[in-house]
Design brief:
heterodimer, A: 435 residues, mainly alpha, 21 helices, globular, B: mainly alpha, 7 helices, elongated
Chain lengths: 435, 158
């Protein structure tokens, strides 16, 4: 039991630091330093950490894609290009009540594939689509749930920063992660679509229908669609690496703003500044997490976690369930990035050694596991009280919808996501079919 | 002070736009005429070098701006004084030991590269100590930002 004392103390100290609200990256880095000092690890261990930070984080060419994708999304958002395309999609589909609901879903997918920023997606959808959903008769709860759930697709549907970081942590190729996420993403959309259809039955058609010419529609939606499809297509087909595609995608986004006459240096600077801040935050969190996981393993933390999981039973599906429940529960209080960076280095080797009897092994197994984690983490955006999407929704709409109504509204969508998660566990082909 | 911060921001953004152009050049490797030269690996190296620069140099600035990620659901319910206590305690408990161990290690890491005149393993950019110097530089600036913050917090709490 004594060999458990150190890792346990380290986990508790870290969790306490995070819960108290101190900067997460520094909590991780600091507890690594403290436990090098109190354990019998040599202080020279820090030289090893520096080499590891340099090799895994700093000179990691794959990570170059992260600021580029963030920049691409921000350029589209800040310049108002995303909004313009959304309005077009809405005009095209907004005739009937069901069409209105579908347009929210379609816009969610489009935003997901172009920007991949959950905050931006949810805020845009709440501002543009939420009032019209309520107008169409969906009711406050359903409208709030649909908007947050559709906006949150941004984190799952590629190209997504989450999938890049997950792929990096699990040592799986990012294009395969992207390809693997498409099936589950579409499945979620289909399930949401079913909800829309059920809810929209019997609702009256909208009284006013705006005229749209197909040419106008093509002009407003076309460039964004081309950008999204070419970026995604080139990655998944293997024509370009994620890093190359991200750079070209960012340039393409700037080009689209030029096309629409929305380009300005002020806009570019706002987007660039925001990107630098986000990138720097992610990078420091990665540095902290690298220190943490190395020292946590050094004091025997991985053995402790493994023993903890095995205490529930050693069947592969029991282990998987424990891991998934742990991620889901932590999702109530932690961010996807922290969960990925802290837990994946610990969980990945445990899962990699399991045989699920479904014919998956090696990289395919890790991709399957990675996508399961991704779907699971996506749910954490919706779980009250600390789901980020709920914050974004409330910040966008103010007090127009009561908090309890928002919570009730997202509940069915959370349950549907867990259902999809279960389906993906039972039918891995939904993920691996497209790789 | 504000001017320096602004200058840093502009400098970073210039670096960033240079970074933005990069992948076009990387695209050149689709053409065999330009490929196979040293330029290819230099460009690939340049890309992550720039990532390191835009990511690490501003960590201190981002710290000062208060933009690093927090688990803020309890933190947000605290009074300003309570938040100051958390930050001060965190700086002393977590940040201080980290920098005491990290800064010398990062410095030595750079010096080893300098002493051995380390170059790219794949024929890319040479003088690797330059980019390795960014780690102690960025973290050093961060330590400075945290030191300033600590002094301010001590004053605030007293």
């Amino acid at each position: 039991m004594s060999e458990m004392a150190l890792p346990l103390a380290m986990a508790i100290l870290t969790l306490a630091g995070i819960l108290a609200g101190y900067r997460v990256g520094m909590v991780l880095a600091g507890s690594a330093a403290i436990f090098i000092l109190v354990s019998d690890l040599p202080t020279a261990f820090f030289n090893l950490l520096v080499s590891r930070i340099y090799a895994n984080v700093l000179s990691n060419w794959l990570l170059v894609a992260i600021p580029m994708f963030i920049f691409m999304g921000l350029v589209l958002e800040v310049s108002g290009t995303a909004e313009r395309s959304l309005k077009a999609a809405q005009r095209a589909l907004g005739g009937s009540a069901a069409g209105m609901g579908f347009s929210v879903l379609m816009i969610g997918i489009l935003l997901a594939a172009s920007s991949g920023i959950v905050g931006a997606s949810v805020v845009l959808l709440s501002l543009l689509a939420l009032p019209r959903l309520i107008e169409a008769g969906y009711g406050d709860r359903m409208s709030a749930g649909l908007v947050t759930a559709s906006g949150t697709l941004a984190i799952l549907i590629p190209p997504s920063v989450m999938l890049i970081i997950l792929g990096d942590q699990l040592k799986t190729p990012v294009p395969s992660m992207f390809a693997g996420a498409i099936g589950p993403g579409l499945l979620l959309v289909a399930v949401y679509g079913g909800v829309v259809l059920r809810r929209a039955r019997g609702l009256p058609r909208a009284a006013t229908q705006e005229e749209t010419s197909p040419l106008r529609l093509l002009l407003d939606l076309g460039p964004l669609l081309v950008l999204v499809l070419s970026v995604l297509g080139s990655i998944i087909s293997g024509f370009a690496t994620p890093t190359e595609a991200s750079g070209v995608g960012a340039l393409g986004a700037v080009f689209i703003t030029l096309l629409y006459g929305k380009f300005s240096f002020a806009m570019l600077m706002t987007a660039a500044r925001q990107t630098v801040i986000t990138t720097s935050t992610v990078l420091f969190l990665m540095i902290g997490a690298t220190c943490f996981s190395a020292v946590f393993k050094g004091v025997g933390g991985d053995d402790m976690v493994e023993a903890g999981i095995m205490a529930f039973g050693d069947g592969p599906f029991i282990v998987l369930t424990v891991v998934m429940v742990a991620i889901f529960v932590l999702g109530f209080v932690l961010d996807w990035l922290e969960i990925t960076l802290i837990l994946m280095p610990i969980f990945a080797p445990i899962v990699a050694g399991l045989d699920f009897g479904n014919g998956l092994a090696g990289p395919e197994l890790m991709i399957w596991f990675g996508i399961l984690v991704a779907v699971n983490l996506q749910t954490s955006f919706l779980t009250p009280p600390f789901g980020f999407s709920l914050f974004y929704l409330r910040s966008a709409i103010g007090d127009r919808i009561a908090t309890t109504d928002i919570y009730c509204g997202v509940l069915p969508f959370i349950l549907l996501q867990l259902l999809v998660l279960a389906l993906l566990i039972v039918f891995p082909g939904l993920i691996t079919g497209l790789i | 002070m504000a001017l320096i911060i602004l200058m840093c921001a502009i400098g970073l953004q210039v670096v960033f736009s240079a970074f933005d152009v990069n992948p076009i050049l990387a695209f050149d490797r689709e053409y065999p005429v330009l490929g196979k030269a040293i330029t290819l690996n230099s460009l690939l190296d340049l890309q992550w070098h720039l990532l390191v620069i835009i990511g690490l140099v501003p960590v201190g600035l981002v710290w000062a701006l208060g933009r690093h990620v927090r688990g803020d659901f309890i933190y947000n319910t605290m009074s300003t004084r309570g938040q100051a206590r958390v930050n001060l305690l965190g700086n002393l408990v977590f940040a201080a030991p980290f920098f005491v161990l990290m800064l010398p290690a990062a410095w030595n890491f750079m010096m080893r590269a300098w002493a051995s005149d380390e170059g790219s393993a794949s024929g890319g950019l040479n003088d690797l100590w330059l980019i390795k110097a960014i780690l102690p530089l960025g973290l050093g600036l961060m330590a400075l930002a945290i030191l300033v913050e600590t002094i301010r917090l001590v004053r605030q709490i007293r």
